[in-house]
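Objective 1b. Sequence-to-structure analysis of tRNA 2-thiocytidine biosynthesis protein TtcA.
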Amino acid sequence: MSLGQTNCPLILPNVHLQPLELIEKSIQKKYREFLWSPFIKALKDFNLVSENDKIAVAISGGKDSLLLAKLFQELKRASKTNFELKFIAMNPGFNQRNLDNLKFNLEHLDIPCEIYDDNIFEVAGKIAKDYPCYMCAKMRRGSLYSKATELGCNKLALGHHLDDVVETTLMSMFYMGKFETMLPKLKSDNFDIELIRPLFYVEEKNIIKFAKNNGIQAMNCGCTVAAEKTSSKRRETKELIDQLSKLNPNIKKKILSSTFNVNVEKILGFKYKKDYFSYLDDYNFTIK
């Protein structure tokens, strides 16, 4: 099946699409160590799911969000915690092939998802012609917050994984001159809802294996605006991490670990909310 012209790396299945029963079983069996266990660890470490939560799981059509939906369904079956799930997928202007592919995967994977339309691709392409990706991402996030709030949800789950966290951390240093990372959960500034990232500890390579070995043809890149302008900075960062991983297979986990181990006594300055603090605050320097 052709999924449109993009510059995104194409991920093709190794086998024919497997029956739903085998796909679900593989989460708890074959990929338990690599998908289920880190998913559960993130939930526990960051208290991402609580009693009486109503969670909107956002599905983009890609491999990450499809896996996230299946993990949450498995959690619902296995957990003693009482919570509710709503699966939502925004159609920001997909071409028909991608939209049909999304609907096919949702049906085969038995994910009861509400698809709603929002012409974000068109709007982002008009107001940010040269670099629409940032504007598109911001608008898509706002749309998902709004839809989740409309459905009465108190949490919105997104499919960002460990590689996204690591790449974002390095990109903030390389290109923005600051040290910051993706957070496993955060409160929305404009909506009464909390964003959560349950795949925080899951490596992308294992998501790819899950999709390929189960015959799942997830959406590769649904963008109709910037398919020829894919962020070179993220691609360069990903390639650098791949090179470093050949020398140190644990490099991604070490980078992630560094975000938990910031020694404020050994940095030159830091920002907390609206205030900035400098290590010079502990010294009484007089410049003459």
